[in-house]
Amino acid sequence: MPIDESLPPRRTDRNYLILVAIVTAIGAGLVWYSQTMAFAYDEGFHLLTAQLIKAGKRPYIDFFFPQAALNAYWNAGLMSLFGESWRGPHAAAAVLTWGATLLTMDFVYFRCPAPSWRFSAGLATAFIVGANAQTVEFGTIAQAYASATFLVVAAFRCAPPSIFSRNAWWAFLLGLLSVAAAGCTLLAAPAAPVAALWMLWCNRAGNRWLKLVAFGAGGVLASTPLLLLYLQSPREVAFNVIDFHLRYREVEWAGALQHNFEVTTSWMLSPQALLLGLLTLTGLWFVRYRSGWDRAKRAEFYLCAWLILAFTVHITRASPTFERYYILCVPFMAILGAMGLYSIGTRLSSRRLVTAVVVLVTAFAIGRRLYDEREDTSWMTYEKIAKKVKEVTPVGAPLVAEEMVYFLAQRTPPSGLEHSDAHKLEQISPELAARLHIMPQSALDKLIKSGAYAVVETCKDEAKISDLELGKLYRQKEAFDDCTVFWDRAPK
Q1: Residue 46 in domain
Q2: Residue 253: pLDDT above 60?
Q3: Which of 372, 392, 418 is the last residue of a domain?
Q4: b/e string for 342-351 if b means 16 or more Cβ within 10 A?
């Protein structure tokens, strides 16, 4: 059926409903992946933190946790509803990623310059966001990538009405959501100042300063959990959230500079990243010089560009940084990229071809990623390890293990063992270490050698096993791929 070019877009359009179905199918795939293959070593301490919060402990104050904590509270709430398993947070992350994909696709569909291009632009956006290799791998785990991405995209959708409405309610929501994103991960910290400045500069109705106050009120509300913790123990909270990242994050990372260089140039070797970057730049050029839109409509796309720039600079400055951190840029690159796709396609008079290229490149990238990861470590591997640990560890006996194992075995770690990054902080004073619940590696090694722990579980660390002579300290052991469980202490 031909498209009536005179009709405005509606959410009851047949093409829009098909796009929603496609995004939902992508979401179903994300949920499937979250329950089967999704795994990251760092999510272990995020899940353990949520478990400790559920048990009544406070991050920063009762244990070391050098992260923003809102996502951990979110996971703790999920565990209260669905049990202390990784599956609930994984499924919820996949749903949030689906939501971010839907919101991004919806924006593109209603901003597309030509009705005949709405479906193609929306389809390309759905695949760029929802089927992006980084999105699939890290938007389906218990870390804060999914929650922060959803909140940033939701904040972005509140930005246009915040400048056109005389009501300050949209500004309040903009502040609430953008600051909440930073409350999930500090990687999203630039979202709030960029959104606030954009709102002030582009305001079209109502009192901009009243809106700024409303924005700030939303931000304060989103910061309430952190503020309450800070009021209880300012020194501990400041160290975990600020000092650690400014002074200690690079400790025991001798190749951080080289690593950062390799990460920030890795896009050159990725067809998916190169294509998305080209489309993003083309889209920005189209918006600025070829769209013919008024200043207000162009401003929405400029906000995408400013967010991409702010996130990129902020993330690149992190040391060490990782490719997955740039996941926050993907929705906004997809929006500009859809406009770039339109610009290129109209010049080539080939809507279907250029759309097919984007979809196929994205599908190939994620297909290759899934193939490469088919035999990687998964939560199923660690469930076997945790089962063995529970079997050989007496009730109440002290245990040294990775965060994933503490979480799965539902064993509270000894103080100082809640986060492995704490062990590298050898240079802080014993008094501060005790206050922050930090156990340096040297102190932990002495306790292990003294036989203080009934069971020791370790992975991918043959040097540690050799240096500590774990094979002599314990009479029994069992290996699980690259991991080993030691138990039954030998008599002295």
Answers
A1: yes
A2: yes
A3: 372
A4: bbbbbeeeeb
The rounded percent of the chain whose pLDDT value lies above 90 is 70
- CB 118 within 8 Å of CB 154: no
Residue 225: count of CB within 10 angstroms of its CB: 16
Contact 253, 259 (CB under 8 A): yes
The string of DSSP codes covering 265-292 is TGGGG-HHHHHHHHHHHHHHHIIIIIS-
Q: How many C-beta neighbours within 10 Å does residue 61 have? A: 17
Does a structural domain hold residue 6? no
Mean pLDDT value of segment 418-430: 89
Q: Which helix (H) or strand (E) holds 477?
A: strand 474-480
Alpha-helix runs per DSSP H in 166-323: 169-184, 191-202, 208-222, 224-232, 234-238, 256-264, 271-285, 295-317
* pLDDT tens, position by position, 1-16: 344 445 688 888 999 9
* Residue 140: partners with Cβ closer than 8 Å, 6 or more residues away: 30, 31, 33, 34, 38, 90, 93, 94, 97, 146
Query: Mean per-residue pLDDT for 209-233?
Result: 96
pLDDT range class, residue 321, cuts 50, 70, 90: confident
**In what side-by-side order are the strands of the sheet with 474-480?**
399-400, 455-459, 483-489, 474-480
In a domain, 137, yes or no: yes
Q: What Cα–Cα distance (Å) separates residue 416 from each residue in 167, 220, 261?
A: 49, 31, 33
Q: What's the residue count for the chain? A: 492
**What's the token pair of residue 73?**
């509270």
Closest to 355 (Cα-Cα) out of 113, 102, 123, 14 = 123
